Amino acid sequence: MALSLLKSFLNPSRKCLATKHCKTLSNLIWSQYGNLHNPMYDPEPFQVLYRVISVESFTTEVVKPVKQDISSNRTRPFITFVLGGPGSGKGTQCEKIVETFGFTHLSAGDLLRKEISSNSENGSTILDIIKEGKIVPSEITVKLIQRAIQSSESYKFLIDGFPRSDENRIAFERVIGMEPEVVLFFDCPEEEMVKRVLSRNQGRVDDNIETIKKRLKVFAGSNLPVINYYSGKGKLRKIDAVGTVDEIFEKVHPIFAAYKGAAS
Ligand SMILES: Nc1ncnc2c1ncn2[C@@H]1O[C@H](COP(=O)(O)OP(=O)(O)OP(=O)(O)O)[C@@H](O)[C@H]1O
Ligand SMILES: O=c1ccn([C@@H]2O[C@H](COP(=O)(O)O)[C@@H](O)[C@H]2O)c(=O)[nH]1
Ligand SMILES: [Mg+2]
Q1: Average pLDDT of the chain?
Q2: pLDDT digit string (tens) for 151-207?
Q3: pTM value?
Q4: What SS3 string covers the chain?
Q5: Ligand at shortest distance from the CA of 200
Q6: Partner residues linked to 105 by β-bridges
Q7: How far is the CA of 191 from the centre of ligand 1 (A)?
Q8: Per-residue confidence (pLDDT) for residue 24, from 0 to 100
Q9: By alpha-carbon position, which residue is closest to atom 15 of ligand 1?
Q10: Which pLDDT score is estimated for 76?
Q11: What is the best residue among 94, 114, 136 to mutate for testing ligand 2's pocket, by most ligand atoms within 8 Å of CB?
């Protein structure tokens, strides 16, 4: 959308632009320029930037990056991964973050469940995997996340319950071409997670003790390495997930408040 606006400004007959438009254009160039290495977006902005520079009526002042208001810039998503074991409260806390900070919540599990209920070609494969508490192939999940990001008007996303393995993480980086800004990890004792899942009562096919045990094993074997990876990169924010929903959100709040300007 921003790109088409930018292109409309590049009509050679429109050399004389109102100051207001110059500022908008400058913001647009910078926002596009910032995403040159993001294969999810049109690679054309680089050429656009040169074309803009070559139009006489633009001064370097115009193309110089200005302090960007990223709230109006959907070309550079602010991505947060929300991780934690089954029942650790990821979905519950995401709802609170959405209410307070206006993020768009993309639960990978919900996207997969939607695929099952829409009778898509992968639906029965996904259902079998979820019943077993295993991990759906990255190509399926990443495609669903990509589609959800691309079709959203939002620019800041909570990706809940993904990546579940290093392979998921690498596939996301390859396809989306981005890394998360921050990774939340809801750290919850197994006993508490089991209790919460068994009393969830949402009719999920995997909310039974057999599947929960399998999911806990998968979490320890495949999800924890992802958590450790982001910890090593200094992106992990570990939250003790025991307590009331509000008590936990009190610990989450400052994390997003600290990103004010970038994510608010
Ligand atoms: N702090 C809390 N204390 C008690 N119950 C909670 C708390 N947070 C969430 N719950 C409840 O626990 C259940 C699981 O929470 P939630 O669905 O948010 O977890 P989740 O991490 O998204 O789990 P899953 O990975 O299985 O989707 C829900 O019924 C929710 O209402
Ligand atoms: O990235 C993902 C997310 C989920 N799954 C499968 O779905 C279930 C349920 O996920 P929740 O996040 O708990 O809603 C999970 O156990 C996996 O089987 C997945 O494969 N990949
Ligand atoms: Mg959930």
Answers
A1: 80
A2: 999 999 999 999 999 999 999 999 999 999 999 999 999 999 999 999 999 999 999
A3: 0.79
A4: CHHHHHHHHCCCCCCCCCHHHHHHHHHHHHHHHCCCCCCCCCCCHHHHHHHHHHCCCCCHHHHCCCCCCHHHCCCCCEEEEEEECCCCCHHHHHHHHHHHHCCEEEEHHHHHHHHHHCCCCCHHHHHHHHHCCCCCCHHHHHHHHHHHHHCCCCCEEEEECCCCCHHHHHHHHHHHCCCCCEEEEEECCHHHHHHHHHCCCCCCCCCCHHHHHHHHHHHHHHHHHHHHHHHHCCCEEEEECCCCHHHHHHHHHHHHHCCCCCCC
A5: 1
A6: 158
A7: 13
A8: 43
A9: 89
A10: 73
A11: 136
27 with 69: CB under 8 angstroms? yes
Ligand 3 (ion): residues with CB under 5 Å are 91
**pLDDT tens-place string over residues 216-263:** 999 999 999 999 999 999 999 999 999 999 999 999 999 999 876 666
Count of positions (residues) in the chain: 264
Give residue 37 CA to ligand 2 midpoint distance, Å: 29
pLDDT at 56: 34
Assess whether the C-beta atom of 215 lies below 6 angstroms from ligand 1.
no
Q: Is the interface score ipTM higher than 0.90?
A: yes
* Per-residue model confidence (pLDDT) at position 264: 57
Residue 246 CA to ligand 3 center (angstroms) comes to 17
Ligand 1, atom 25: closest residue by C-alpha: 86
CA-CA-CA-CA torsion sign (139, 1, 80, 87) = negative
